[in-house]
Write a sequence for this structure.
């Protein structure tokens, strides 16, 4: 509702065996942020498009390397083109194959899982306010309305190297995943996200409802949301979720 340009980019593709979903939120001013997020989505998609088996060894490393490849390409461009200096982007990528999901993340674009009515945030923001929450200086509610809530501490393209976080876990029939930029999650709290995602609406209608909700609350940033509903799963049962924020979903 405020910005004239859109610095978000995304990719979403799925077939009965595998889904690949990417959201990137660029920064660095007009044009530069859009370039960074577009580059990141294109590179990560290219690097992971052939990844269809999450049971093999080294899949987490492959996701990590795709984000590092995007980081190097964007950073090198900032060194060559003066008008691109300072650009960067968040990236969150979700892969679902068989009974497993795998997430790679840099920045504060989030991935959520709605399971059995309970919504959990699978990723952990790389942000100033999240660090303050971790240190006990802010409550999550205070962090939400903090003036530095949009300051991230890690992004793709800002430096020569970046360290992504990865998360993995088991997929169940009926799971609903949300991949979104902070244009959504910064405007709509988790309780309202849960209400909108738990509805019986189709995924596309849920996306429109989420965007309308964020715009209704001010729409201060570009809003990107991907909603994924799991209709069926195939393959051996997996281990419990792992990663910096790994937790088993609980019914409230």
């Amino acid at each position: 509702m405020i910005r004239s340009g859109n610095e978000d980019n995304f990719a979403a593709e799925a077939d009965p065996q595998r889904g690949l979903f990417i959201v990137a939120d660029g920064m660095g001013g007009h044009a530069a942020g859009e370039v960074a997020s577009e580059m990141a989505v294109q590179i990560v998609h290219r690097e992971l498009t052939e990844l269809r088996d999450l049971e093999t060894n080294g899949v987490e490393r492959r996701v990590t390397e795709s984000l590092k490849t995007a980081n190097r390409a964007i950073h090198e461009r900032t060194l060559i083109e003066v008008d691109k200096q300072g650009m960067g982007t968040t990236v969150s990528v979700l892969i679902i194959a068989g009974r497993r999901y795998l997430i790679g993340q840099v920045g504060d674009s989030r991935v959520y899982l709605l399971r059995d009515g309970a919504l959990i945030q699978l990723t952990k923001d790389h942000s100033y306010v999240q660090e303050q929450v971790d240190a006990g200086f802010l409550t999550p509610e205070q962090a939400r309305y903090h003036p530095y809530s949009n300051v991230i501490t890690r992004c793709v393209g800002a430096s020569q190297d970046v360290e992504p976080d990865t998360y993995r876990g088991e997929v169940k029939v009926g799971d609903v995943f949300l991949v979104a930029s902070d244009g959504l999650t910064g405007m709509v709290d988790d309780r309202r996200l849960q209400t909108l995602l738990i509805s019986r609406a189709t995924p596309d209608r849920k996306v429109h409802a989420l965007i309308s909700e964020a715009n209704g609350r001010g729409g201060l940033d570009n809003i990107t949301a991907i909603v994924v509903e799991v209709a069926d799963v195939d393959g051996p049962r997996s281990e419990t979720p792992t990663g910096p924020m790994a937790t088993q979903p609980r019914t409230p």
Notes: The chain has a mean pLDDT of 92. The helical segments are 32-48, 59-80, 128-134, 140-144, 182-185, 190-197, 203-216.
